[in-house]
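[Solved] Which block belongs to which protein?

Original post:
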Amino acid sequence: ISLVIGTVFAFLFSEKPLKPLLEIMKATDRIAEGDFTARIHLKGPYELKQLSDSFNHMAEELASVELLRTDFVNNFSH
C-alpha cells in the first residue's frame, strides 16, 4: 500500500517542478524549426522570470536577424 501511495505522490509532485522546463523545451523546439514568434511566460521565482525575459529577447533578436538575412538575399538576387 505504501508503495502505491508513494508512487502516486511522486508522480504528482514531480510534474510541477518540471513544467517550466517542458515549456522551455517546447519553445526552443519551435525556435529551432524557424518559428521565431515562440515566447515563454514563466511564473515563479525571479530567476525563472529572468530566464523568460532572456529567452523572449533572444527570440526577438533571432527574428530580426532572419528578417535582415531574407532582405539581403532578396536584394542580392535581384
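(Second protein starts here: sequence line, then its C-alpha cells.)
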Amino acid sequence: MKLSSKCRYGIRAVIEIARNYKQRPTKRKEIAASQNLDDSYLENILIDLKNKSIVAALRGAKGGFILKRAPEEITLLQVIESLQGELSPAECLLTPEICERSEKCVTKSVWQKMKDAQEDVLKNVTIKDLLEQELAGEDAVLDL
C-alpha cells in the first residue's frame, strides 16, 4: 500500500485540528502554516474530510475546522479511506469481476491477508494515539 500525498497531508491536518479539540476551531491557514502545506491543496483535502464527516467547518470570524468526533474515536483507517478509498493491494479484491482468474487465483489469499493486516493496524491507531505519541517525544512507538 502506498498512501497518496493527499492522504498523508490529510492525516497531518486532522492531527492539527485535534490539538484544539474542545478548545477552539482551527483555521485552514493555521493548519497550512503549521504543517507547511499548500493552502489551496489543503482546502480540497478539508472539503473531502468534511464530506466524509471527519471534520466540520464553522463559518465566521471565530470559525474554522473541528472534529466531528473525539480524537479517540477517529482511526487512521477512517481518515485514509475518506481520502483515498478502500485500501487494497490488488484491485481484484474490491472488484473480482475485472479478473477472469479471480475464482482460481493462487495469489488472491495472499493479497487478502495483506489487506486485512493493513486494515488491522490502521483501525487500531487513533488520532488521540498519535497526539499522545507526539507529546511523549519522537522516539515513542505505538504499542500495537
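Accepted answer:
You had them paired correctly. Confirming on the second one: The helical segments are 5-18, 28-35, 39-51, 76-84, 91-94, 108-123, 127-136.
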